[in-house]
Amino acid sequence: MVDFEGRRCYKLRIVRNAGQPDEEFYDVETGLLAGSVILRESPMGAVKATNVLSDYKPFGGVRLATRGVQRQSGVEQVITILTVEHDTVPATAFDPPAEIRTMLQKPAK
What we know:
The protein is mainly beta.
């Protein structure tokens, strides 16, 4: 266990398919993702970014972080989520256009 942003966390080292190792931190008390530290190569050299997630709230039965803080190259960006909607797209939005429906109805030769 380690301290991450003032929280006791489990630290995991994850190696992505592209080969980059990242660190993820999971809150010991809740088991929820507390954040991550990533290091990526850029034209200006290696760039480290720290992401901190907090203020988890339930939305449609799914608990999501409503506050995210990213620190990179001396800049801090804060994202606050107020609402989340699930399944608001009508099923008809996935209907193919008339031309495609016609093609789908024709028997294959």
